[in-house]
Each structure stands twice: as structure tokens, then as C-alpha cells.
Amino acid sequence: MSEQKTWSIVETSNYGRDYPDESFVCQGFQNKGTAELVCEFLNGQTSIYAERWNIVVEAGYELQPGFEP
């Protein structure tokens, strides 16, 4: 039996910064399409020019840290 993939939504920098300071918004979606719909809804609540943006990632994704002086 194959292991089922799960999907998560991650908040990240909308500008591709080196230290995006990411965090999980929602985890454990069994269906990528559902995760994408929720992500699209969340992103639709803000401007496309916002500092923060949401993306869909596969289980096991490692969050990228923020800048620490």
C-alpha cells in the first residue's frame, strides 16, 4: 500500500527574500486541489503586492527561517 501524500499551506515572503520567515497556516490536506482552493481564497483576501503570501507545499517541507542578526 502506498503512502498518501498530504499538503500544507505556508505563509512566506511575496518577494522571494533570502530569509522569508515562513510559517504553517494549515496542514494535513489529503487533496492538493483542496489545499490550492484554500490557498487561493487566503491570497484573495489581500493584495497581490502584499508582503506576505501563501503557497501550497507537500508534506515534509522545511520552513525557511527569518533573518537573525
Extended strand count:
3
Shape: flat
The string of secondary-structure elements, in order, is EEHE
Number of domains: 1
Any idea what the radius of gyration is? 13 Å
Poorly predicted residue ranges: none
User: How widely separated are the two ends?
Assistant: 47 Å
Determine the strand fraction and express it as a percent band. Answer: 25-35%
Structure overview:
- By secondary structure, the protein is of the alpha+beta class.
- The protein has one domain (7-58).
- Helix content is 19%, strand content 30%.
- It has one helix and three strands.
- It has one helix at 32-44, and strands at residues 7-13, 23-29, 52-58.
- The protein has a three-stranded antiparallel sheet with strand order 2-1-3, covered by helices on one side.
- The longest helix has 13 residues, at 32-44.
